[in-house]
Design goal:
The chain is mainly β. The protein contains three helices and 50 strands. Strands 1, 26, 29, 34, 35, 36 and 38 form a seven-stranded antiparallel beta sheet that branches. Strands 8, 9, 10, 11, 12 and 13 form a six-stranded antiparallel beta sheet that branches. A six-stranded antiparallel beta sheet has the order 27-37-30-31-32-33, with no helix packed on it. The longest helix has 17 residues.
Length: 655
């Protein structure tokens, strides 16, 4: 009996030694939320959208190079489909030659989107004067359509010929409603606007939201709703607001701010909403990030009957909603607005999405997916488009074993032992990865015909450990393993490098897609001893999430008082910063300075403590407040000055 037991133990021991360690495949669909999804850093997407073969439906030409906004409408009366495409000049320029009859054209399909006809302008009257405006409407590009009681009602934003992007002339715009007997127009405009920019220009909400635009007209059972965007200029934050009325002619209610960075809780920043859509009894408001890589999307929703109640809105889906493709007409990723459309009788979600081509001309494109199956069971796409992207999985690994299979274009990388801080390079539109994000890590980087192993120091000094020729195939297989103290890199079944990586430390495992690069990942299995990790978010993230104007801050570089040598000090005594984060706890860092005062630490709207940032002489940044075991994963942390100026450094967030 003892002999049999010994044999059994020997067999088990041999089997265990020969077995591969258990792997977690992060390319499986049910693990999509394990990846980092961030409005600036990037968004790996498992979505199932398929493009229409005839894309682009429209490509911009001078002088209207940017058709970058649109609305996709299914006519319940005829069954025809319509695309309303806003026609902008490049860079949203305005001109004395602008003409309302050129600002929006409509395309019609009588065969469910297979073929399209350009039906021309939806406005025919060039001399439309709205109440309280001395000049006629010269521009009305962004529209939405509602069919009700055999009429077609159009919500749209407008600018008069007095409008300009600076000074008081900014107020000569707003949102209005028009009506027609046909979805092709011509539409007759009601003279009283639903809401005018002058309302916000004279009394900016939170001292910054001073322009309304991009309205979506909606019909609930009891009311008419205009959902619209609010712009804050140099604060680079946008708000979603709404007005309501008993009829499309009004009278319209006072505006209600639905969502913005002013929210106390978790809220992803840099988001623009437009257009919204309604399906059954729910209103959906897709939002797109205006960061440089242009690949993060989210959808907010609310029961239609409660649309005017901000506390009833929910962030229903965040990330993994949309992917960009490596095609000339999608060169810049989504540009100008979010994807949006309608759900037809067959349960197909049919959407419009704009982009810029390689010559920076606007394109209008179409796609669709099953409404009830938004994501694939396995595999995802991760792209960089105009700017680089980064994402990571949870945990901290010292010796991660990685087994990946993917196709790629451009330049991509698998990162490990990553301890680099995270955050945008600047708190504004077109933000991209901060340069510090490329430090303090090991990267296996692939380009079209070569591979590299790079070790980058905390100061950013790169060391090329290995390199070689890559015979690119349709799908690349890449494995990282270990033999004793040596790391082994295999590409397509062949060992291409074996050696010792020096000074390895536990850190994140992640992915980079550089500018105009991307990858479609079929498998990304990771194993190895690991423990809960942390990410440190830079001061730029705190400024961005609060919608700060940099003119109100002194930005400092190469300052040893700050953890990474960079940070900001407020110019006023009521400054506010915010980090929206996912995690179980945090450490808040700040230096001490003679010119600083006191600040409140507020989590999800609740004041946790008051901290004193004042010091008789300068003190290096240190942890000034910590929390662990948070009851919820998504949180909004606000630091608000109450007695004196504040300094903003960084926030470490724990898995």
């Amino acid at each position: 009996m003892k002999q049999l037991f010994a044999i059994f133990l020997f067999i088990v021991t041999i089997a265990c030694k020969g077995a591969d360690p258990p792997k977690t495949d992060y390319a499986l669909g049910f693990r999509r939320d394990a990846w980092l999804h961030h409005p600036v850093l990037g968004d790996p997407s498992f979505d199932l959208f398929k493009r229409y073969s005839q894309n682009p439906l429209q490509r911009g030409t001078p002088p209207l190079e940017w058709p970058v906004n649109g609305f996709y409408f299914e006519d319940p009366k005829s069954g025809n489909e319509y695309v309303y495409a806003g026609q902008y000049r490049k860079n949203y320029a305005v001109s004395t030659e602008d003409d309302i009859t050129k600002g929006c054209i409509v395309f019609c399909s009588t065969d469910k989107g297979k073929t399209w006809q350009n039906k021309g302008s939806i406005f025919h009257d060039r001399r439309v004067f709205l109440n309280n405006e001395e000049k006629p409407i010269s521009f009305a590009p962004d529209v939405s359509v509602v069919y009700f009681e055999d009429k077609y009602y159009l919500g749209f934003d407008y600018a008069t010929s007095e409008f300009s992007w600076s000074g008081e002339n900014l107020k000569h715009g707003g949102l209005a409603v028009a009506v027609s007997d046909s979805p092709e127009g011509p539409f007759t405009i009601y003279k009283k606007p639903a809401v005018s920019t002058q309302y916000f220009y004279d009394n900016p909400l939170f001292g910054k939201y001073n322009r309304c635009y991009a309205g979506t007209l909606l019909k609930t059972k009891k009311s008419w709703i205009m959902l619209f965007m609010l712009d804050s200029g140099n604060h680079f934050s946008w708000g979603l607001a709404a007005v309501s009325a008993p009829s499309p002619e009004g009278p319209w209610s006072e505006p209600v701010l639905i969502r913005s960075v002013e929210d106390a809780g978790y809220y992803p920043s840099l988001m623009e909403f437009f257009p919204a859509f309604q399906y059954k009894d729910t209103i959906y408001a897709p939002a797109t990030s205006v960061a440089l890589n242009r690949n993060y999307q989210s959808i907010f929703s609310v029961p239609a009957a409660r649309v005017m109640m901000p506390d009833q809105w929910r962030l229903g889906c965040e990330g993994s909603l949309w992917h960009s493709e490596n095609s000339e007409n999608e060169y810049a990723g989504i540009w100008g607005q979010a994807f949006s459309g309608f759900v037809n009788q067959n349960g197909q979600f049919k959407v419009i999405f704009p982009s810029l081509d390689s010559l920076r001309n606007g394109t209008i494109n179409l796609a669709s997916r099953d409404w009830n199956k938004p994501c694939r069971d396995s595999g995802f796409i991760f792209t960089g488009q105009n700017g680089a992207s980064f994402t990571a999985i949870p945990g901290s690994y010292l010796y991660p074993e990685i087994d990946a299979s993917f196709s790629f274009y451009g330049s991509i990388a698998i990162a490990m032992n990553t301890l680099a801080p995270l955050g945008p390079n600047q708190p504004r539109a077109d933000a991209t990865l901060h340069p510090l994000m490329f430090t303090d890590q090991t990267r296996v980087q692939l380009s079209e015909n070569s591979w590299f192993i790079l070790q980058i120091s905390p100061t950013g000094k790169p060391d090329t450990i290995g390199r070689g020729f890559l015979e690119k195939k349709r799908y690349t297989s890449l494995k990282i393993g270990y033999h004793g103290s040596e790391t082994i890199l295999s590409v397509d079944g062949k060992i291409v490098w074996q050696g010792i990586l020096k000074n390895q430390k536990p850190g994140r495992v992640g992915l980079f897609a550089m500018s105009h690069s991307g990858m479609e990942i079929k498998k990304f299995a990771v194993s190895g001893k690991h423990h809960p990790g942390f990410s440190t978010w830079l001061y730029t993230e705190g400024l961005l999430n609060a919608g700060n104007n940099l003119n109100n801050w002194i930005v400092t570089k190469d300052n040893p008082l700050f953890k990474y040598g960079i940070g900001a000090v407020s110019k006023n005594d009521t400054a506010r910063v915010k980090w929206s984060f996912k995690g179980t706890g945090f450490d808040l860092y700040a230096p001490g300075m003679p010119e600083l005062g006191r600040a409140q630490v507020i989590l999800n709207g609740k004041i946790l403590t008051e901290v004193n940032l004042h010091a008789e002489s300068p003190e290096k940044s240190k942890i000034i407040y910590s929390v662990r075991n948070l009851p919820q994963n998504k949180n909004g942390l606000v630091i608000k000055g109450i007695k004196g100026k504040i300094a903003v450094d960084c926030l470490s967030v724990y898995d």
